[in-house]
Write a structure and sequence with these properties.
The chain is α/β, with parallel strands linked by helices. The chain has 2 domains: 163 residues, P-loop containing nucleotide triphosphate hydrolases (Rossmann fold, 3-Layer(aba) Sandwich), CATH 3.40.50.300; 65 residues. α3 packs across α4 and α4 packs across α5. The longest helix is centred in the middle third of the chain and has 15 residues. The chain starts with a strand and ends in a 5-residue tail after the last helix. The chain binds adenosine-5'-triphosphate (ATP). One of its GO terms (molecular function) is ATP binding. Belongs to the ABC transporter superfamily.
C-alpha cells in the first residue's frame, strides 16, 4: 500500500534522502525510525507527494504520487510533522472546510465529522481556535483531518512528539485502534513506541536505509537491547 522506490532528495550537493526503498503491505503498522535529520520527514513528504523526489517514485495504493496525486490522496491520510494548518480556525470550521473541499455531501460531512471527533476525542475543543489548543489536542486535530475521508493508508510524522505522557497514551491508543483496519507508516524517536505498536521497523541514517525488518531482528543488532541497536546502526553521539 505504501511503496518507496529508490527515493532520493538532493538540496544542492546535500542528500536529505538517498535511494530509499521499502514498502508497507496492507494492514501493517511500520515504524519509521532514525536520528534527528536522518531524512524521515523528507521521505514521508516524497511518499505523500508534498515534495517532488529528485529520483525515485513514491506510490500510495499503487498510485505514483507525482503523476496521480489526486487518486492517491483519496486513499491517504497524512499528519505532517508540525500538526494541522489553519491555526485561526476552530476544529469544526477546519473539518467542515476539508469535508467540503473533498466534495462530501452535507449528510456525509456531518457523519464523518462526528466519527473523527469521536475517534480523536475532540468534543470539548470543537469551538476553540486551533492556535489556542494544547499540543496534544493540536496533534489530535491533525489526526482528525487525516482520518476525515476514511483513507486506508495513514502516514503520520511523529504523532507523539512533544506530548506529555497522558497525551502520548491517548495517541498510542488511537493509533492501535486505527491499526486494526488501516495500513500505517509512523515516524518516531521513541523506541518503546516501536515495541508497543509496530510489527516492523524501517530505520534510516543520514538519508540511507540501514535496517528493514522485525522489531526482534532490530534488537539483535544491540545484543537484545533496542537502544543499543539504534546506536549501533546510527552511531549517533549527539546527546
Ligand atoms: N528544504 C530543505 N533545504 C535544505 N535542507 C533540507 C531541507 N529540508 C530538509 N533538509 C535537510 O535534510 C535533512 C533531513 O531532514 P528531515 O527533516 O527529513 O529529517 P528527519 O529525520 O525528519 O529529522 P527529525 O527527526 O529531526 O524531524 C536535514 O539535514 C535537513 O536539514
Amino acid at each position: 500500500m505504501i511503496e518507496a522506490i529508490g527515493l532520493s532528495k538532493f538540496y544542492g550537493p546535500f542528500a536529505a534522502a538517498r535511494d530509499v526503498t521499502f514498502s508497507v503491505g496492507e494492514g501493517e503498522l511500520v515504524a519509521f525510525l532514525g536520528p534527528n535529520g536522518a531524512g524521515k520527514s523528507t521521505t514521508m513528504k516524497m511518499l505523500t507527494g508534498y515534495i517532488a523526489p529528485s529520483e525515485g517514485i513514491g506510490r500510495i495504493a499503487g498510485h505514483n504520487m507525482m503523476e496521480d496525486r489526486i487518486e492517491g490522496s483519496r486513499q491517504l491520510g497524512y499528519l505532517p510533522e508540525n500538526g494541522p494548518l489553519y491555526p485561526e480556525m476552530t476544529p469544526l470550521a477546519m473539518l467542515s472546510f476539508f469535508a467540503e473541499a473533498r466534495g462530501m455531501s452535507t449528510a456525509q460531512k456531518k457523519d464523518r465529522i462526528e466519527a473523527v471527533v469521536e475517534i480523536c476525542d475532540l468534543s470539548t475543543v470543537m469551538y476553540k481556535p486551533i492556535s489556542k489548543l494544547s499540543k496534544g489536542f493540536k496533534q489530535r486535530v491533525g489526526m482528525s483531518q487525516a482520518l476525515l475521508h476514511e483513507p486506508d493508508v495513514l502516514i503520520m510524522d511523529e504523532p507523539t512528539a512533544g506530548l506529555d505522557p497522558n497525551q502520548v497514551r491517548g495517541v498510542r491508543k488511537t493509533m492501535r485502534r486505527l491499526s486494526e483496519t488501516k495500513t500505517i507508516l509512523l515516524s518516531t524517536h521513541i523506541l518503546q513506541e516501536v515495541e508497543a505498536m509496530a510489527s516492523r521497523v524501517v530505520l534510516i541514517n543520514e538519508g540511507r536505509l540501514v535496517y528493514d525488518g522485525s522489531v526482534d531482528g532490530l534488537r539483535e543488532h544491540g545484543g537484545s537491547d533496542l537502544d543499543d541497536a539504534f546506536h549501533a546502526l546510527t552511531h549517533d553521539e549527539a546527546v
